[in-house]
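PT: before anyone asks, these are the final sequences, not the draft ones from last week. 243 residues across everything. Please model them as a single complex and drop the result in this thread when it's through.
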Amino acid sequence: MCNQAVGLVAAELEHRGISTVTIQLLRMVAEKVRPPRALWVPFPHGYPMDTPNDPEKQHAVLDAALKLLEDRTLTPPAIVDYR
Amino acid sequence: MGDLSEFSFKYRLFLKTYPWRRIDPVPWTPLEKPLRQCNVALVCSAGFVAPEQKPFDDSIRGGDTSFRDIPSDVDVPTLVESHRSKIFNHTGMREDPNLAFPIDRLRELQGSGRIGQMNHRHLSFMGSITAPGRLRKRTAPEAVQRLLDDKVDIVILVPV
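LR: through. Structure below.
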């Protein structure tokens, strides 16, 4: 449900002119809901930024998310897998 | 992980049959300036509230669609998690709220110059919303208006 909720908020943001990137934990939900710009991460629910108390790993997720915003080749809906 | 395998059969069935709300058409706002010039905010759905704020209401049928302003200078370990879902492990984000609401990480990105600035507030939802009509019609537009008023350029949204 969380994946859908943030996707719907992202759509409203983009509709009104704010760029977004949405972390997604379930690819199936991302494909159905279609947030505009999504980074699918292979982590369990409750762990969207990878590992608690590990700033390096958390920064890696954030950096991947920010790179989607810089990628001029993406088109909506963009779902990109986190490596 | 990142698929349905972590859930019970009952919840997997629910996820497969739930009428997911399809965004169509998909809106798109390209980023028009470098990250180092952007004002960035977070939207989190982990149900975090600041210590003096009212917790999310887990008794509302269909989900509590309200949200809280979280000041960007909050002491992150003081955030209180009030997400109602019992289908995932809350241990990690209670131990380190940055796991689901990476305020300290964003602060560090501001410090390094990777982003221009962190907005003065972020928004916290509780994402366990099975009936999102009110979210779409009322609270999401209200939330977006606050971020427009703040002249936010980018929002990073994090579910749990």
